[in-house]
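--- STAGE predict ---
source: upstream dedup step, 1 unique chain passed
mode: sequence only
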Amino acid sequence: MIDNLKKILNEDQDPKAIEKITAKLENLLMSNEEVGYIAVQKKPAVNILPDSIVVTNKRIILCKPKNLGLSMEFVDYDWDDIAASFVKEGILGADFTFSTKSELTHTVDYLPKNQARKLYTFAKEQLDLLKNPKVAAPVVDEIKPVEVIEPIAEVEDIVEEVATEEVTNFAEIMPASTYTSFEEPKTEAATSTERKLSELSQDELFEKLQNYKKLLDNGLILQGEYDNYKKEILSYM
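--- STAGE serialize ---
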């Protein structure tokens, strides 16, 4: 128990007295109650059965030995009932006094000055917490990014994004005009091809445009040729 209260002990306190008090307080502390400080009387003449005062985060506890030290009387006051606290220093020590809202006043005298000051400081902190409770910071919900749905691309954009595939049979998709000389006039076969384009459905036209794109990606036709084919097919779509 003393190891847990080393922060409370100082040169003015008797470790045995602190151990005795804490042993009796062990079963009196409430859940989530922590001892903040313990002060023990130090009378100038005989200091056999000193009174002590314990401050926790919930209350002030007065500890008075009874029956020659065989028993202990405990009187406690919640911080909600405490109106104010005072310290008065003298030559032989200091008095720690606190008053309640019911106009009761209690004083523990002959306290070492250092202990009385620490009692007063702790009491002020607890009273300030009651007057100005800490407000928890509001929880801000994480703003989720808005999913943006892109509009459907036009037919030309879709055609440009078609994955490259290997073409094995070029004769099926190559129009007759590609086999003629560039300077030759358009043959009857080309005219036949135009008529066939007008007879194709939208899906068939789109598939034919995809095939031309594959030829372009594989380097089998030039960009200008592909553009002409695309323009011609799109005119029928």
